[in-house]
Amino acid sequence: MKVLLADDEGARRIRVLEQRRDGSRLYFDSGALYTHVDADGNNLLNYIAAMQRVLARAEDVLLLGTAGGALATLLSRAGAAVTAVDNWPQAFEIAKRWFHLPSQVECVHADALEFLRGTTRQWSAIAVDVFHGTEIPEAILTSDIGALLASRTAQGGLIVWNVADSPQSWETRRIVKALQREGLAPATVSVLDCDVGNTLVVCKNTAVRGGRGAALAVDDDLSSAA
Q1: pLDDT digits (tens, 9 = 90+) for 115-125
Q2: Residue 52 falls within a domain, yes or no?
């Protein structure tokens, strides 16, 4: 294994490694694997592939949290207009230098919550992949996070939130409740990566204020990733 980057900044412990046998690259933060791509920048993690399948039909996507940019790269290469937001500006430099992040991806250095509160733009899909290690920062689990996501997603658009835990976990239940308060009907899907479980919380923005959105049917392709 070749070390391409070792960056310890504050609470961050970033490592970018390259497999000598095949040229694939891995991005770790505080020991948690966030990104794994082959030598051409193609994603090798199941949870990223599952998120991409959910978002495949979206014309424009807001990604909150970047890491090595594997999801942004997948969506951009497929033709989507991608806006990536991260509160650590070096993440974009790392993604471009080591993980093939396309130049056409719009990169925004900002706190995810502040960005949502400060913009009036809407996207056809929003993906949330914000972590410190394997934990979702408490700062983003605010009382208004569901309302912010719903208001920044176009009618009929998708919200996908990655949780590094089981569908029964406290974090997953809290996110589900936040979306339900906005009249949405989120579904949860389990995804295994190297025996480590992730949960995707997925919902469609079909809610009418004061009503309840229709439940999202999870397609067979996504279910097969579980």
Answers
A1: 999 999 999 99
A2: yes
Beta-bridge partners for 83: 62, 106
CATH number of 57's domain = 3.40.50.150
Segments forming the whole domain that contains residue 53: 42-223
- The answer to whether residue 92 sits within a structural domain is yes
Residue 165 lies in a domain: yes
pLDDT in tens, 1-44: 999 999 998 778 999 999 999 999 999 998 889 999 999 999 99
Number of domains in the chain: 1
The list of the chain residues with pLDDT below 70 reads 193-196, 207-226
Encoded amino acid at 215, one letter? A
DSSP secondary structure code for residue 83 in this structure:
E
Q: Is residue 13 part of a domain?
A: no
pTM score of the predicted model: 0.89
| Adjacency order of strands within the sheet including 2-9 | 2-9, 12-18, 25-29, 32-37
